[in-house]
Amino acid sequence: MRVYVYLLACLAFLPGCREKSADAEKADKNAAEINAEVQKLKASSNPQDQELAKALSDFQAAAPNPVGQLWAENNLGWHTSNTVPRLRIITGKAPFYKGADDLSYTEYYSPGGIHFWDDFGDFRNQFKLDDNFIIQGARTIDKSGNLLAECRLRYYVRNGTQGRELEEFHYSPDGKVMFRCKSQIDPDTGFKTEEQKLSGKKAKDYYFIWPVH
Predict the structure, then answer these.
(1) SS3 at position 104
(2) CA–CA separation, 175 vs 132, rounded Å?
(3) Residue 85: which pLDDT band, with cuts at 50, 70 and 90?
(4) Which of 85, 38, 68, 53 is nearest to 151 (CA)?
(5) Is the residue at 196 inside a domain?
(6) How high is the pLDDT of residue 98?
(7) Strand 192-200 and strand 177-185: pairing?
(8) Average pLDDT of 180-207?
(9) pTM greater than the 0.70 cutoff
(10) Are 109 and 84 in contact (CB under 8 A)?
(11) Percentage of the chain with pLDDT > 70?
(12) In the chain, how many domains are there?
């Protein structure tokens, strides 16, 4: 009996037997919500829902990966050398920006004017470019290079007007999708103006401003 109690006491100190942290419990809860959404999408007869279900399943199943789950590092259109920084200051409040009244950040370009990334201080948005150097999406990392979020750009036509929409995927520290949404981008200012939550809970906004040039 004493040996049994002793073993239980030792097991309590093993990593797998410790009580889960609040972040881990939040990630598990968000993962459960996303898994429920996957099952709902799979039951739909809409091909687009089936596509989204597969994409979400793939993201959830992916192991933590330092080069990202949506955009791999080798298909991002940015480089760390020969870049030209341009400080940008936007006066007035961006709808989804939670910082100071004036939004200040640094844009980085190639010598030929190709937009590679935006640096906001505590995080950086690195842009995915196609063969014509047009932005397709972004990957967001912190100062240490840890993956925070990714997004892909989609175009749509509504009432005869073309719009821009971002599909966002925000990750927990272990690489799981913890928040997913669709965001509307103002074609003139680049501000995020609307957000449609699809699953999970957002910890921070990374795409409150998007290149429109």
Answers:
(1) strand
(2) 30
(3) very high
(4) 68
(5) yes
(6) 85
(7) antiparallel
(8) 93
(9) no
(10) yes
(11) 69
(12) 1
Give a yes or no: residue 45 inside a domain.
yes
Tokens of 19: 């009580």
Q: Look up residue 191 and give its DSSP letter.
A: B
Q: pLDDT digit string (tens) for 13-58?
A: 333 333 444 544 555 565 666 677 778 778 888 776 776 676 666 5
For 180, the token pair is 């997913």
Q: What are phi and psi of 73, to 5 degrees?
A: -60, -35
Instruction: Determine the pLDDT at residue 26.
Output: 52
Evaluate whether 96 touches 208 at the Cβ level (below 8 Å).
Answer: yes
8 located within any domain: no
Residue 31 sits at the vertex; the CA angle it makes with 26 and 36, to the nearest 5 degrees, is 130
Q: Quote the domain boundaries for residue 183.
A: 21-200
Strands 123-129 and 161-171: unpaired
> How far apart, in whole angstroms, are the C-alpha atoms of residue 167 and residue 136?
11
Cβ within 8 Å of residue 135, ≥6 positions away: 115, 127, 128, 129, 153, 211
DSSP 196: E
Both tokens of 91, joined, read: 């006066």
DSSP 147: E
Residue type for 163, please? G
- Residue 37 counted as domain residue: yes
Please give the single-letter amino acid code of residue 188.
Answer: D
* Exposure of 26 in the CB half-sphere (CA atoms within 13 A): 13
Give the percent of the chain with pLDDT over 90: 37
